[in-house]
Amino acid sequence: MGYTRPLTPGSLRVRNMVSADQFIQGFRFLPGYFDRSAQIDLLEALREAIAESPFYTPTMPRSGKPLSVRMTNLGPLGWVTDRDGGYRYQATHPVTGQPWPPIPAMVLDLWRKVADYEPPPEACLVNYYVPPARLGLHQDADERDFAAPVVSVSLGDSCLFRIGGRERASPTRSMKLSSGDVVILGGAARLAFHGVDRVHPGTSTLLAGRFAEGGRINLTLRRVTEPG
Ligand code: SIN
Ligand code: MN
CATH classification of 32-161+176-182+192-222 is 1.10.3720.10, yes or no? Predict the structure, then answer.
């Protein structure tokens, strides 16, 4: 599998940490993958999709406690959570009842270039963080296919991202993710615990004028079912 490919020269820009690429096999960090003009194109494509499939506030299984991150999805399947149904994938938006809009071509193109996994992603979770929103340490484990990597894109304000190992108690490393950065969790890192400790307000102008509250958007691409 290609997850252990050597670092691209760009990834030497890893900041303030022992490179997580070396820390956990299968973790790849592609800083600045999307330049500013590509980020703008991507955000415009997202804006159209989000107008059709708006952000909503998901809730925790059992407790029904609201998450601080707002969410929507693109693609045939979307990841949702609520008090009664728990974590799951479904084909429709829980509020509008409509199918999720398609994953933009630019995003599918990213998958083709970096995932090293031929079948296309089925889910593109769109997380919207307006400070003080955060996302606790968790594993992406609701999929049936762990052979495919998780590919994620950061847009807007930078954040403090934390990644550890396959156990909740495994040691973790923190790193800054900035607008345009891509992270890949493949191989042994596919089930690594990860989360977002905080978003740094006002560190990017990308969302200003496009999303009134500023903040950070993250796209998470996943294969849900086993192909064939
Ligand atoms: C996630 O794990 O769902 C999102 C991670 C991120 O926002 O960078
Ligand atoms: Mn995740």
Answer: no
